[in-house]
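During the reporting period the student researcher (J.K.) took over the structure-prediction task from the postdoctoral fellow and processed the backlog of single-chain submissions. One of the processed entries is reproduced below for the supervisory committee.
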Amino acid sequence: MATGRERARTFGNLAAGTAFAVVLAFPALDTLLGIDRTPPPQEKRQLAARPGAPHSSNALASFPGAFDAYVSDHFGFRSLLVRLEARVAVLWLGVPPSPKVNVMVGRNGWLFFTGDQTIPYIEGTNLFGEAELRAWSVSLRQRNDWLARRGIRYLVVFAPGSPSIYPEFLPRWVRPSTRGTRLDQLMAAMSSHPEVAVLDLRPSLVEVKKLAVVYSPTDTHWNNLGSWAAYRAIMGRLSAWFPAAHVSPFDTFNVAWADGGGGDLAMMADIQGMIKEPMAWMAPKQGFQARATHASDYDALRPWPRGMEPVITERRDAQIPRAVVFRDSFSMSVAPFLSEHFGRAVYLWIPEFEPSVIEREKPDLVIQEYAERLLSVVNPANPPALAAESTNGSGG
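J.K. obtained the following structure tokens:
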């Protein structure tokens, strides 16, 4: 006859086995019944699709890997577990929740983007070679020459990432370069070609940083105060060409602060909503006068991802009649400030120089804005016809 101790051990083993079986069955139950109501993580990538039945030897050979990728992206309670993993990793341990997430955790609650070779850029381990630097210099000079022949002004603007403005909050294992970065190299090279207006926004952001925080600690981009600092620097340069265009002083804006749940880096790390950080909002006291519409005329230019569609702004009695702005995400919050000075402006989210747009719009001004980290990944080559027309086509 079993003793009390043996019965207790048997019961304990049965309970443990039952609990283990329930845990194993839970993902399947969620897959069948949809129990998990946790919002799915915003991973900025396409989850693996369910593979179809293989109908060839090649498809059969690749099927196990494709099916494994599908299961990894769609197993039961995945959303809940990913959120829990992110909370523990980022908020408690101070590490990225996954190697797939292009985020690093810095000091004092700051997050930093790691895509687009950002870490080699910061540390100066991917400095331009002579040929690469020459290619950028020649390309910008060709564009400027091509536009000057048509009576159009050209301004190249480089938007710094938060590591350039807040290096003190980078993780301790990141070592900012003592030899400079690709942007430092390009600015030095372009100093020999003053006919090309190239604006490095780092000094302006550092200046305003002394007064207030100009980047969101959990976002890739500057906040509204940083946007105003960028706007002020850009208009300072444009006023030399268009004297009637003046920077709107800071005291002509209303500024409000509100708690936000985190920026795009918090979203990528899946902790958005788990934190609070102050967000700045700015708007002219009389309200923005320029009106924005979707630039449907340019829908056929290329496929436009959602949120990156062409935009046209228009305003009466503006000091600069027409402008074209080739941009990236950093210009999204600067565009409302700039558009107050443009009669008509076309904003296109592309890294290239697109002559067909210039020929169609016949602008007075072209602005080309780049995030500084894109110097590591963007090809600066111009269309052959533009390069051939320019007196800088040979790179001399």
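The committee noted the following: The CA atoms of residues 255 and 282 lie 5 Å apart.
J.K. will present the remaining backlog at the next meeting.
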